[in-house]
Amino acid sequence: MTLIQEAISRVLDLGGPVVLLLLCVSVLTAALVLYKLWQYQAARVGRHRQLAAAVAAWDLGDREHALRMLGESRSYLGPVLRMALSAPQTAELSARVDAEAETRFAQLERGLGALDMVAQLAPLMGLFGTVIGMIEAFQKLQSAGSSVDPSLLAGGIWVALLTTAAGLAVAMPTSLVLSWLTARMQRERVFANQALRVAFAPQSSAEADPAQAMGSLAHAG
Fold it and tell me: pTM of this prediction?
């Protein structure tokens, strides 16, 4: 416990309470990023080889192969596609499947808002600490009167600017990770939308309908 108190005291002496707050925020942010990486790994985000094969087989009319490939997938989108392929296809089912997909997307996107908030507020927190440090430095300079020590002012400014550097050090990697996670979710939405549209309107059905129509016309003739 003493070591922790000493570390906190050193951080406070070095950069003040703002740097300590940014340090705590960075630890929580790192924990959230690690959790999101584990969550995406467990949900098999971006790993849709079996699902893509199932959708391609369904599009060609091979329903047995499509369902077999779908059963081999461990992706979070597997139950959604299984619902779309296994039940009679109606407008109500399409709306329900879209809602199920959005529910899974919302679960995967949970926490991205917190990362966005850290990316935006961390530089402002650092700037706030810099302003406070500059105010304290000039207060000490005013209290010194005519006997001004330049090192006193330089030391205060150095400590003040440290908070800005700390804020940027937290914000930049957070913004980078947030952009990467957001891009992955955008790709997931594109894949899910394409897969579900194929599930409800496969090419084989579109090709079968004109053939059936021509057969009916020939029979009628």
Answer: 0.79
